[in-house]
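Researcher: Good morning. I'm working through a list of sequences from a screen, and I'd like to move beyond sequence-only analysis. For each chain I'm collecting a predicted structure so we can compare shapes side by side. This is the next one on the list. No need for commentary yet; just the structure.
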Amino acid sequence: MKQYLIHAYDHTDAQALERRMTARPVHLELVKKLKETGNFVLGGAILNEYGQMIGSNIVLQFETQEEFDAYTASEPYINQKVWEKIEIRNFRVASV
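Model: Good morning. Structure tokens for this chain:
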């Protein structure tokens, strides 16, 4: 399976945290489904010095690029304009 690292920072406008919190239940439901299918490897929120969520790091794996593209098309944090700066890299979890 091909693995991907998503490193994303949220928008910084006054409504950014509210958009994140609105989208969060749908995002977590998607993550739950990805875990059940073995596509979710790990992930979590990036926090600022006050413990507030300001972004996300996620490692996912998919058999095909098309499956990954389908995920990005359905990701609420993308569709609902939570993430502003998104970096996607090919990734490989170390096996030791």
